[in-house]
């Protein structure tokens, strides 16, 4: 039983891999889905079952008879090159979905499943930030279908996250630890996506608010140094004054500054004395 079950699982996975294909098309483009490479003389009947976002419908064709309850311009083309091509004249998000094609021919049938997906270009963004005290360059491609590819001009400690957003679109974030001794302006990422003819190159720049700018850092260092100097000077002054006090107890004459400091008190005493003297 278990072996049968495993075999069934294996076969299912195998057949899914064999017949299921995901195809990406730009919106507004014309798409051709090729169902089989059999020729018309072998074919008895062809059906396309469409499971789209808004509806389910069928298009079928056999010699002398055809049916279509999709009624949206899709048609099975009868060309000599590929006789069972389903043509989607104007790909849009309403046309995205699962397309299952079944061909009945003399001697059997075959089934193919295509997942039709509409290409959506992602929005790209790049910046540098501090993460755990390390400078990290980050490139982001958000809201694209399929997920974008991000590569870097430098090899290094690399992290890439991919997540699916609620609407079937993808967000890809790739971050690279800026290697030591490398000018961060020399680091760039390349984002590739089927919606673009050419790859996009981005240089992650330092983002204000995401990291301390060098100017703020410089000012902070200066303030700290200044405070240190002030503190040291004050300590020195206290020690110096103590020395002066102990010096005055000895026989050396007090320096002039000390005299000036004492003077207001002396003159006050003198004045008081003079007042008393008058009375
Ligand atoms: C699809 O096939 C039709 C003819 O069957 C052709 O005119 C059209 O250009 C094809 N489209 C693509 C995208 O190959
Ligand atoms: C048709 O396609 C199958 C695989 O899908 C291949 O084995 C076979 O050779 C093809 N036949 C022709 C006539 O191209
Ligand atoms: C088309 O026909 C199929 C089966 O006959 C049915 O399941 C489906 O709902 C129909 N779709 C529309 C849009 O009428
Ligand atoms: C498709 O074209 C072939 C000739 O190329 C013809 O024999 C066949 O009957 C056509 N089938 C349909 C459904 O029109
Ligand atoms: C394709 O579809 C879109 C919306 O679904 C429409 O705006 C556009 O005009 C269509 N283009 C053609 C060539 O039919
Ligand atoms: C990303 O790269 C992989 C292999 O490097 C490739 O198979 C895939 O198609 C690429 N995807 C895009 C969206 O360019
Ligand atoms: C930046 O890259 C250029 C060209 O690759 C190289 O000549 C230069 O030395 C690099 N600068 C630093 C600071 O790494």
Describe the protein.
The protein has helices at residues 2-19, 214-249, 256-278, and strands at residues 20-25, 31-34, 43-52, 56-62, 65-68, 75-77, 85-88, 97-105, 108-118, 123-131, 134-144, 149-152, 158-164, 170-177, 189-192, 200-202, 205-206. The protein is of the alpha+beta class. The protein folds into 2 domains: 2-118, Immunoglobulins (Immunoglobulin-like, Sandwich), CATH 2.60.40.10; 130-214, Sandwich (Immunoglobulin-like), CATH 2.60.40. It has a 6-stranded mixed beta sheet with strand order 1-9-8-3-4-5. A 5-stranded mixed beta sheet has the order 13-14-11-10-17, with no helix packed on it. It binds 2-acetamido-2-deoxy-beta-D-glucopyranose (7 copies). Residues 55-58, 69 line the site of one 2-acetamido-2-deoxy-beta-D-glucopyranose.
User: What proportion of the residues is helical, as a percent range?
Assistant: 25-40%
Strands of the largest sheet, in order across it?
A: 1-9-8-3-4-5
The biggest beta sheet reads: 6 strands, mixed
- Termini gap: 128 Å
Number of helices: 3
H/E element order: HEEEEEEEEEEEEEEEEEHH
Using the alpha-carbon principal axes, give the shape: rod-shaped
Structural class, from secondary structure content?
Answer: alpha+beta
Q: Uncertain runs with pLDDT below 50, 5 residues or more?
A: 1-17, 262-269
CATH architecture of the largest domain: Sandwich
List key phrases describing it.
279 residues, Immunoglobulin-like, 6-stranded mixed sheet, 5-stranded mixed sheet, rod-shaped, binds 2-acetamido-2-deoxy-beta-D-glucopyranose
